[in-house]
Every structure is written in C-alpha cells, then in structure tokens.
Amino acid sequence: MEKELAKNVITLLGQKNLTISVAESLTGGLVAKNLTDISGSSKVFKGGIVAYTDEIKTKTLKVDPALIQEFSSISKQVGQDMALKVRLLMNSDIGVSTTGVAGPEKSAGFEPGTVFVAISIGEHNMCQDLHLTGDRNQIRQQSVIELLKLILSQGL
Asked: Among 40, 75, 83, 92, who pairs with 118 as Cys (CB 3.0-4.6 Å)?
C-alpha cells in the first residue's frame, strides 16, 4: 500500500511541479525511503532529516524549544513546526513531518500509537492526531501511510 501511495504522491507533485521535503522522528527515514523508492522522485524530493532527538529538532530543524518545553516533542504543535521548518530549511514547496511513539513502551507519558503527521504548504499548516495500534513496525508503517494519504488529500 505504501508503494502505491508514494507513487501517487510523486506523480501528483511532478504534475503540479512541486517539491517536497520531510522531517521524521518516529518513522526514522521511512517516509523518505518510500518516496525515493519511486522512479522520478528526484524531480520532486529535495531531502529529509531524521530528527529523532529534541536536540536535532531544535538545533538542525530549528523547532522552537518553547514548543517542546510546553507541549513535548510528541505533540501537534511540534509536528506542525517540524513540517514548517523542514520546508523552509530545504526551500521546498511542501514540508511534512512525523512524530510520536512507536513503542513498545510509553514515551514522555504517551502511549504507543500516539502519532502526529503534519504538512506545511505556504501559509497552510495542518497536523493529524492519530491513535494507531499494532507493534512498533506496524505503527511506523501506518504512520507513513497516513502521512502519504494526508499529502494526497490536500488537492495541491
């Protein structure tokens, strides 16, 4: 399913002459992998950052540390800021992000399956709050699927 969705995203972005960049936490590069597995992705995919720690989120992506302090890195606010900041950093038309808990243990008080996928396009920033089930790998794969669906749902 991920491959078909990723192909649809690459095709759509190519048709619209748009570029995309990704900031990933819980998916650890899976979004970038799925997008770059598609032939022709180099025309639209600018790059990605795996910002697994708060340090990388703030120092490399320039996520506002106050957001992490107030809401935690597992939050809608940080997810939105990650998507915005990767878009600006890579000078792409679209920025997307993933953050959350894949498990199997809780993290920062959040249950496994607590996931935020976000998109930033121009002045439009949105984030979906997901509650996924399954093991660590299933949660990560479902997160990729939901993010790809979010991109496609924007109508670009």
From this structure: 83
The whole-angstrom separation of Cα 30 and Cα 10 is 15
**Which residues span the domain enclosing 111?**
2-153
CA distances from 32 to 62, 67, 116 (A): 20, 25, 17
- Tally of domains within the chain: 1
Cα distance between residue 79 and residue 64, in whole Å = 11
Contact 99, 108 (CB under 8 A): no
| Stated pTM of the model | 0.96
What pLDDT, in 10s, does the model give residues 109-139?
A: 889 999 999 999 988 999 999 999 999 999 9
CATH of the domain at 121: 3.90.950.20
